[in-house]
């Protein structure tokens, strides 16, 4: 080999002529492949970049399909467990995949790690991390809020830290930042396939990876070295042309797309951005767009590798990954004539800034029409609070552009008219904006810099300025604005927009202010118009990493002790769910017939309930408490069909369980949209539920129900929803012959003795039917391990 290297580095034409012969004789792989094999996926990992394997797999698949491939297809299909034999049909076949890594945030990691412990396995099989970001409540400011959270949640943090050490999972301590920003800064890379136990995991698509939100049981599969299953997604192409200018930001791209596709238009599909406009968006801007793609139900979103990603990789200390990715652009970009199932075209040059909401992220309002819409719909025009940051919009560029607006306002003697909260996405962003004076500028404006955590975006907000039920408006740069999402007040009208518009609207204090044309009055009485926001895409001095908040697991964690106290009200070891008894599910009582939108927030509320995410029985007391009962239009008030008395939903379910009464739930369209929280599936199962019957499901929630042994069923005829009355009995028949693609017979028995027969569809495959029969996917895993 030494002789070979001397020849390769020699001078002269003869060396160039015989180069390929030398390579073939001296190397078992090409120099390109050898270089890739030496570059680790991250500075925390020893596992190399998978480009060699992905390229080989892709060659197999492309030869089989005989057509051009989209970028998302390249990444997905190159991660197939069996590229030679896997059936591949968009929207139909179930893919068995081998993701490169797993990421879990602290609220969902508790249940994921409890399930992994139940599996009996000694160590995770793929690089995995836990990120403490969800349990920090915003009260007064970053330092004090963080200290309070560490004290209140010490039992949970200790559990996650020791579980990580024992089972080989990296641990990001509280204060490190939001999971998706940590992933972007440290772990994401072009061509990555990652699953994360949070619905906004697609954030990593801004760096060219396929990052997909899942429930904890899916994470357990991957950590247990079991191929991960995903229904082969369709691909929605979004072609971007033109260039962002003025007040228009990357956020406006996804706000516009949400208005086009709605909250369910992306279900079962990957959204793939392409076209010349892509190169005019920063890497963190692309991450913003992918992050909020969760709000249209998309499996994930992704951008092709380009110079903006390369610059970000280098700025975050990953020059070697950037150099390697540059050599694999054929893998990291779509083919020229790749076919899309749907194509949307957006001209960035003419795209108008948007403000979406209230109560749903797909109600798209161009800024020029927002004031008119507010008056027409009686939305409160006076804004009470402005909030910027979160996992969606907390990059250095975002903060810098807001600071440019703030500096101009301050130069005219103006500050924010309302409370203005700032959430840095990570310790690295916080430290860098502190060093560069951006944080001081925002404080001078009247802003409060909160902890590096999710905070108000997920309802971790101890809001004091309004009473519950008081109608009011807030504007945020977050991604989600369901009823009560941020402050548990159903009367709060939340609008999501870019951080730049939040800042401008906070200066005016009114929803009908349009910074593109309206003027402000300075302290001197003179009128002025805000200039277009501007900022550096990346810090010229480089990023300041701030405090070291990462804890790497030991090479051998077998002696680490993980304690779960039997008297804890925060943590609870899991008991296996009961197996199916082999009989039809007859005369099921309807716990609740839900009317209208029913997100995972409605099924399992967040906010103050987050502290019980590791204790299934305690958190089950929040089940369906904000879902609307179709019988009376009320929240958390259902009739006990045994006693005839009305009571809270969780208490009624517990009464049924104690009496041996099996029950089901009937729901509307896009049931389970929103968060990836599997508690929305675990709680109904724990309290005696057997089936969820709806018009349609959101992807992650449907999978979570399957994993826990529930039957997720959809009306073959959506109008049959209206045939069901809350006091009916439901029978699911012929379950012994349950098979993929075969509808389930359903008998509806009315109180007057009459009956209706309808058909219910399902998307269960053979493996998932075995989960149902075993009682859960985890039960089935144990059966397989024991040879059953």
UniProtKB/TrEMBL annotation:
Residues 539-562 are annotated as: Disordered. Residues 73-509 form the Aconitase/3-isopropylmalate dehydratase large subunit alpha/beta/alpha domain. Pathway: Carbohydrate metabolism; tricarboxylic acid cycle; isocitrate from oxaloacetate: step 2/2. It is an enzyme of class 4 (lyase). It is found in: Mitochondrion. One of its GO terms (cellular component) is cytosol. Binds 1 [4Fe-4S] cluster per subunit. It comes from the Eukaryota. Residues 549-562 have a biased composition (Basic and acidic residues). Keywords: Iron, Iron-sulfur, Lyase, Metal-binding, Mitochondrion, Transit peptide, Tricarboxylic acid cycle. It catalyses: citrate = D-threo-isocitrate. Gene3D superfamilies: Aconitase, Domain 2, Aconitase, domain 3, Aconitase, domain 4. Residues 590-717 form the Aconitase A/isopropylmalate dehydratase small subunit swivel domain. Its cofactor is [4Fe-4S] cluster. One of its GO terms (molecular function) is aconitate hydratase activity. One of its GO terms (biological process) is tricarboxylic acid cycle. Its EC number is 4.2.1.3. Belongs to the aconitase/IPM isomerase family. Catalyzes the isomerization of citrate to isocitrate via cis-aconitate. NCBIfam families: aconitase_mito, PRK07229.1. This is Aconitate hydratase, mitochondrial.
